[in-house]
Specification:
SH3 type barrels, 2 domains, five-stranded antiparallel β-sheet, 3 helices, 18% helix, elongated
Amino acid sequence: MAWFVLYTAARAEKRVEERLVQMGIETYLPIHRVKRRWSDRMKMVELPLFSSYIFVNTTDHKLRELLLIYGVSRIVYYLGRPAVVRDAEIDAIKEFLVLAENREIISNGDEVEILCGPFESRSGKVIEVGERFAKLYLEELGAKICVSLLELNKKKQA
C-alpha cells in the first residue's frame, strides 16, 4: 500500500472522494478555508488545497481500477511510473493545514483588498505584518493605514 495521486475533472474533487470512500478506498483530500465575497455578503468556503488532485492509499494494481470511477481523469505519473507520495509528505501537508487553518498567508509586498470598513474595496500593498494587523500603503490616497488581517483578502496574481 502506498499513497498515489489522481487527477480529477475540474471542481470534482469532493464528489470523487465520496465515490472512492464508498468503494472502501482510503483517500486524503486536503481542504482549506478561504474568504469569498459575494455582492451581499462574505463567506468562508472550503476549497481543495490542490485543485483537481486527490491522494489515494492503495496498491499499484488496484490503482488502475480507479480510472473507471466517474470524475477521475488520470493517474499522475513521475518518471514513467505512478507518482508515489511518502507518508511523511502527507503528514507535512496535514501539519501545514493545521498551522494555516482559518488563515490566509499574507506577507510583506502582497497586494491585498480591504473587505470591509471605511476603506472597503480599496487595494493596498502590505508594508508590515503583525500577529493581528497589517500596515498597508494605499497608493491612490498616498496614505499608510493599519487594518485587521481578518478584513483583508490577498489579491489573485494575474
